[in-house]
Design brief:
By secondary structure, the chain is an alpha/beta fold. Helices cover 49% and strands 13% of the residues. The chain has 13 helices and 8 strands. Strand 2, helix 2 and strand 3 form a beta-alpha-beta unit. The protein is globular.
């Protein structure tokens, strides 16, 4: 099929290349001329503007939006709404909040334009391995872009999970689970790293756990790569960002009264990683000093003993 791709970052560019490799015709747009040139070298038809992209597509048109969530996605879809026509379809493949899907679908529907929200997982490995796609929208809208969905996903890795918003909701929860899994690996390997009496080879352990272990997963394969000699792991700082979906998952758990302690704790641990000299930790140390006479460390390596209490 013919499809437009808006946004040629790491995900959008690789998705464009995978679609072309599967025999699809892609018209591609990005604000960066270098990004457009890069996908043109792979066989895409570059467009200098959104208007040029729409003009290059044969109706009924399908346009996949793969730009950062929030205002960039909202503004891009709004611009496309003024350029597209009845019968066309817009796919939002970014990490948008699922609550934005219904109003977006309604706004597009007023112009006769279909809407599909496609939760997309696979990262930079999706080009070779395919992308897991969790898709929301009407049967009619999804059917119009299904050839592209099937091309992007590995066998068994695509499903139409429900109406508009369902795709991004499922992807949100997926990323929340991902937070918890990564935190568990991080804590376990940190514990082993402190067992100095055993001189454990953490790369070796990550490697053997990939075969037959009940904790094997793709994330563990990535941990094995990260811990490999020469990977540069030693130079990485322990500062962990969050991209939004974990926060949304925790908020949904609160709003729906669903206990999600692991995901919640993993999100808070990311916050803690960014605060090496957090006020709260300093106050804890001060309180222990006040009630128990415990030493307060004022400089690296400092400290002069302690008293009783916790």
């Amino acid at each position: 099929m013919q499809i437009g791709m808006v946004g040629l970052g790491k995900m959008g560019a690789n998705m464009t290349e995978r679609l072309i490799g599967k025999g699809h015709d892609v018209v591609a747009f990005d604000l960066s001329a270098d990004a457009r040139d890069a996908v043109a070298a792979k066989g895409a038809h570059p467009a200098a503007t959104l208007a040029d992209l729409v003009a290059a597509l044969d109706p009924p048109r399908a346009v996949w939006v793969m730009v950062p969530s929030g205002d960039p996605t909202t503004q891009t879809i709004e611009t496309l709404r003024g350029l597209l026509a009845a019968g066309d379809v817009v796919v939002d493949g970014g990490n948008s909040n699922y609550q934005e899907a219904a109003p977006t679908e309604a706004a597009l529907a007023a112009s006769g334009i279909g809407y599909v929200d496609a939760g997309t997982s696979g990262g930079v490995w999706g080009l070779a391995n395919g992308y897991c796609l969790m898709v929301g929208g009407t049967q009619e809208s999804v059917a119009k872009v299904e050839p592209a969905l099937l091309a992007l996903a590995p066998e068994g890795g695509y499903a139409h999970v429900g109406p508009a918003g369902a795709g991004h909701f499922v992807k949100m929860v997926h990323n929340g689970i991902e937070y918890g899994m990564m935190q568990a690996y991080a804590e376990g390997f940190e514990l082993m790293s402190e067992a100095h009496e055993f001189s454990l080879d953490l790369h070796q352990i990550a490697s053997i756990w990939r075969y037959g272990s009940v904790v094997r997963s793709w994330l563990l394969e990535l941990a094995e790569r990260a811990l490999a000699p020469g990977s540069g792991f030693e130079s990485i700082e322990g500062y962990v960002v969050d991209s939004g979906e974990g926060r949304w998952t925790v908020q949904e758990a609160v709003d729906r009264g669903v206990p999600a302690p692991v995901i919640t704790a993993s999100l808070y641990q990311r916050f803690a990683s960014r605060r090496p000299d957090a006020f709260g930790n300093r106050l804890l140390a001060a309180l222990r000093n006040q009630f128990g006479g415990h030493a307060v460390v004022t400089e690296p390596g400092g400290g002069t003993g302690g008293g009783g209490g916790g």
